[in-house]
Amino acid sequence: KIPDETVRRLPQYLRAVSFVHKQGCKYVSSQELAERLHMKSPQIRKDLSYFGAFGVKGTGYPVETLLGRIREILKLNTPQKAALIGAGRLGKALASYPGFRLYGFDIVEVFDRSPRKIGRKIGGVEIKDVAHLGDLGKRGIRLALLAVPAGAAQEVAERLVEAGVRGILNLAPCYLKLPKRIKVVTIDIAMELGILPYYV
Amino acid sequence: KIPDETVRRLPQYLRAVSFVHKQGCKYVSSQELAERLHMKSPQIRKDLSYFGAFGVKGTGYPVETLLGRIREILKLNTPQKAALIGAGRLGKALASYPGFRLYGFDIVEVFDRSPRKIGRKIGGVEIKDVAHLGDLGKRGIRLALLAVPAGAAQEVAERLVEAGVRGILNLAPCYLKLPKRIKVVTIDIAMELGILPYYV
Ligand SMILES: NC(=O)c1ccc[n+]([C@@H]2O[C@H](COP(=O)([O-])OP(=O)(O)OC[C@H]3O[C@@H](n4cnc5c(N)ncnc54)[C@H](O)[C@@H]3O)[C@@H](O)[C@H]2O)c1
Ligand SMILES: NC(=O)c1ccc[n+]([C@@H]2O[C@H](COP(=O)([O-])OP(=O)(O)OC[C@H]3O[C@@H](n4cnc5c(N)ncnc54)[C@H](O)[C@@H]3O)[C@@H](O)[C@H]2O)c1
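^ thats the input. predicted complex w/ nicotinamide-adenine-dinucleotide below
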């Protein structure tokens, strides 16, 4: 089993190896990855060895193989359908963000509760009424991005779990209390900014 | 000196204590904070003891005092002026986000390079030409939010440092190579989403 810290670093390796791949390189050394990612190369070699990726001394890791292997571990080779809840300021930006494609994500459904927004489109997807989520799991949607106010996030998250969602990216500045089997990642942008003055 | 891990947790304590304060509570126990934040209460007691916050057995920590103390440590009592670079999809959402106020932040200047956008307003602030940053440090702007494409982020960040910025919240999916004295926090929203399928 791969340790959680290693899994958390895999997307960073994916980003760095994709970059090198786009530049046409066939091999990449752990040293080069270490410089790009500002990590230590022994750490990188150890992480990559968990899933059998072995570099050849003097030439490094074959880029195509490494890319395929990381994408396979992260389960990114199967297209990942996601639902976006909340078509406000942040939701609008997320709905049309092309950067999710690198990880194989596609926002296929958008929900909101405002009658003014339901029926309009953002990112090319029609906004539907959050009161009618239906069976998201049955439609192959196991992931959701939550961009609703903090006060609404817990209740909406519980309804998403009932509808079959198993992983949530929470952008509301609050903690979601959900069963252990649901994977939640919370990003609080204001909080990350709040750390800076201490160091400046 | 307060350890870095403790500093990173302070904004979470601030968020939880502000919530309890808004509800009118005068005291809060480390146990209640532990439940709200899903941390362990010995960890919370240890963190709070670094800056002399002592709870009274049976009643807990005085909420007003705790709030003041955390804000003081994080230097959030002095209004923090920030510049936003990039008035695109994400920049528009950030420019009018009221959530930065909890931490005392105000986006006072916005820059972009697109002639179409310069002169317009977002979040009530006029967009200026990124070619003329001027002396941000002299105008009391030591922090910046970077919402430009990844390919432009490094060059823009270097110019911000020359203009006097000392802390950067980077929202572009790339690593910024800057002198050690500059504090950089990078948030890669797509990458955080990219971790979910592994667990789902
Ligand atoms: N705007 C930003 O830049 C920014 C930055 C960091 C964090 N956030 C967080 O992201 C979330 C969204 O912020 P925003 O600025 O887009 O807010 P917003 O008010 O512009 O949008 C919120 C949207 O959620 C909808 N909504 C409210 N309750 C709902 C419910 N129960 N079910 C479904 N939809 C519901 C509203 O109709 C609205 O369209 C908030 O939690 C905010 O704190 C925003
Ligand atoms: N849209 C999202 O939801 C989202 C999510 C995660 C990360 N991001 C990241 O945030 C950044 C901005 O994304 P976006 O969707 O707002 O893109 P965008 O293309 O809508 O906006 C980018 C803005 O930056 C400006 N710009 C380009 N080069 C510049 C330079 N050298 N100096 C100043 N301004 C410059 C452009 O004129 C444009 O207004 C990107 O790095 C993106 O990967 C966006």
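Chain B is about 40% helix and 20% strand.
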